[in-house]
Amino acid sequence: MSSNTEIAIVTHGSGPLPVVMIHGWAMNSGLMEATAQALSDIATVHCVDLPGHGRSRDCDLPLDPDGAVTAQLGERIGPDALWIGWSMGGLFALAAAQRSQARGLVMLSSTPSFAEREGWPHGLRPSVLTGMRQAVATDARRTVTDFLRLEVLGVTRAHPALQDLEQLAFGHGMPQAHALEQGLDLLEHCDMRARVSRLNVPQLWIGGARDRLVSPDTLTAAAAMAARGESHILAGAGHAAFLSTPDRFNSALRNWIDGNVRI
């Protein structure tokens, strides 16, 4: 059987600023297309489907931020981009920004370490990730649906937001089982805290005040480690702030780009 190593990328706009958007665990690039459209007047936005997800469901590359995924993205998109990563996608955006001449980094409801570990009390408890791993092995679709509910927990108009998420999340089919497992391994073991301080580019750590996965304290702590970092917390928003509060999210993102990123 032949191997497929091509990552799917959907591009929006033709503005002078190259932007790369990378989705989170079990999701796909379709969830970020509305945000891409909102930037299309100033940017050329490349929405990436990670291997095993969305339009890249048949891509065989491993989910490794330091491997072939970021190498291929760098070759196809080129240097000097603004990298935006949502949740798990932030680990890939951070790694890609470090290996290229990035204009900036936006960590959207993301963290350099999703797991709690020594010196980092902001992560998820190991038991949470162990439970997710067991649930994926038992019923992957139900686990992803439960994860979507967690993403909108506590936000205004949670039910319509969940419906929107489900429609977008399953629009290209379920992620591959091995990709879900690799993603959980990444969330449990990846620790990029040291890279945050070494990356000397403008960094925005932005997320929702009601996020149950990546708390506002996590974003503030991560931004404080960066030489050129700042955090922005959106009131009333959850883990998918760009969907639950799109106008305020897009405004905050545009204002930060205008003040920090060369176009």
Automatic annotation (TrEMBL):
Fetch the SUPFAM superfamilies from UniProt.
alpha/beta-Hydrolases (SSF53474)
Q: Which InterPro entries match?
A: AB_hydrolase_1 (IPR000073), AB_hydrolase_fold (IPR029058), BioH (IPR010076), Carboxylesterase_BioH (IPR050228)
- Which PANTHER family does UniProt cross-reference here? HYDROLASE ALPHA/BETA FOLD FAMILY (PTHR43194), PIMELOYL-[ACYL-CARRIER PROTEIN] METHYL ESTER ESTERASE (PTHR43194:SF5)
Pfam families membership: Abhydrolase_6
Classification via Gene3D superfamilies? alpha/beta hydrolase
**Keywords from the named record:** Biotin biosynthesis, Cytoplasm, Hydrolase, Serine esterase
Location of the AB hydrolase-1 domain = 19-251
This protein's record includes keyword Hydrolase? yes
Q: Cite the source lineage.
A: Bacteria, Pseudomonadati, Pseudomonadota, Gammaproteobacteria, Lysobacterales
Source species, domain of life: Bacteria
In alphabetical order, the GO MF annotations are:
pimelyl-[acyl-carrier protein] methyl ester esterase activity
Stretches assigned to coiled coil: none
Q: What is this protein called?
A: Pimeloyl-ACP methyl ester esterase BioH
Listed EC numbers: 3.1.1.85
Q: Does the UniProt entry include the keyword ATP-binding?
A: no
